[in-house]
Design a protein that fits this description.
- Helix 1 (about 5-70) runs antiparallel to helix 4 (about 135-220) and helix 4 packs parallel to helix 6.
- The radius of gyration is 66 Å and the shape is rod-shaped.
- The chain is built from six helices and no strands.
- Helices cover about 90% and strands about 0% of the residues.
Length: about 325
């Protein structure tokens, strides 16, 4: 596999690990947000409705007491306040009913609705008695509604306690879930880090080791060791590092072959030089012998030249004598 492909796969692996860590983190955040929204929707909002229901109910009790005790001209104002508070109580209880998600809450809410209905029936009866100017009967009935009012308030308090307990349970569950999410993200992050480190180490070793081996081979070649050869594992590789190792190995082989060829040629030249030297020595000996022969011949020629000169002088003397003889003969 080519190094570029290895690097690409390594980077893709690290990117995939980072993506997994990121997805795990985003999922944790989204899940945490959903849990928080669920707590707000199922705990915080219903508790707000319960608080409003409690306030409205207590104000109704106060206003109905003041309505019974108030003078006739002031009663319409109290009656309007009571009607508005009843409407608010009904609206808040209906909103709370939509957020009920447990059977226990539904039972407590049914008890609250029943007691509240009885209390509102008594309020209407008290209103009728007051309008009929039957104040003693109205005051007696108002005192009798105390038990129903207490039951209603107890039902509301039970709903508040149930929601608070559910909120505590949700808080503890959310805390445990948060711990699990943190653990999951930490484990995924740690695994991603280990995978990245492992891939980096393996990739670095797969590149650095053959490079170092090639560098050592080149250093040995520079020092004159032409017998060094490439690492077999590097030669077997099918990537760019393998190409480098094989090129270095082939260069060492070529250098060794070239130097061996030069050495053989030098040996042949040395042998030829020796043979030529022997021949030159023999030629010198022959030349010396020839020189000696030429010297001997020169001496002989000189001796012969001297003899020839003497013969020539004798011949000239003879010629002179013959000339004189001819002269004498002529005179006679």
């Amino acid at each position: 596999m080519k190094i570029r492909r290895r690097l690409t796969l390594a980077f893709l692996g690290i990117a995939a690990t980072s993506l997994i860590v990121g997805v795990a983190g985003v999922w944790a955040l989204v899940f945490q947000n959903e849990v928080s929204e669920g707590m707000y929707r199922n705990m915080t909002v219903p508790l707000g409705h319960l608080i409003t229901m409690t306030e409205n109910f207590q104000r109704i009790r106060v206003d109905i007491r003041d309505y019974v005790q108030a003078a006739a001209p002031d009663r319409p104002a109290y009656l309007d306040s009571i009607n508005n508070l009843r409407a608010g109580e009904t609206q808040s209880s209906a909103a709370f009913a939509r957020a009920i998600d447990a059977d226990q809450d539904q039972k407590l809410f049914d008890a609250y609705t029943e007691s509240l209905g009885k209390y509102f029936e008594d309020l209407e009866t008290i209103q009728t008695l007051v309008e009929a100017n039957k104040l003693p009967e109205a005051r007696t009935l108002l005192k009798a509604t105390t038990e129903t009012a207490v039951q209603t308030q107890q039902a509301i308090d039970g709903l508040v306690e149930a929601k608070q307990g559910a909120a505590r349970d949700a808080k503890n569950g959310n805390k445990a879930l948060t711990g699990q999410i943190v653990l999951l993200v930490s484990v995924v992050t740690a695994l991603g880090f280990l995978v990245a480190v492992f891939v980096g180490i393996v990739l670095a070793r797969s590149i650095v080791r053959p490079l170092r081996a090639s560098i050592r081979q080149l250093e040995e070649l520079a020092q004159g060791n032409l017998t060094t050869r490439g690492d077999p594992r590097g030669l077997a590789r099918k990537d760019e590092i393998g190409d480098l190792v094989r090129a270095t190995h082939q260069m060492a082989l070529d250098l060794h072959e070239s130097v061996s060829s030069v050495a053989v040629t030098a040996l042949h030249l040395e042998n030829s030089s020796r043979s030529l030297g022997d021949r030159m020595e023999t030629a010198a000996q022959v030349v010396a012998s020839v020189s000696r022969g030429i010297g001997s011949i020169s001496e002989h020629v000189i001796d012969q030249s001297a003899g020839v000169s003497e013969t020539s002088a004798t011949s000239e003397q003879i010629l002179q004598n013959l000339g004189a003889l001819n002269n004498l003969i002529g005179e006679q």
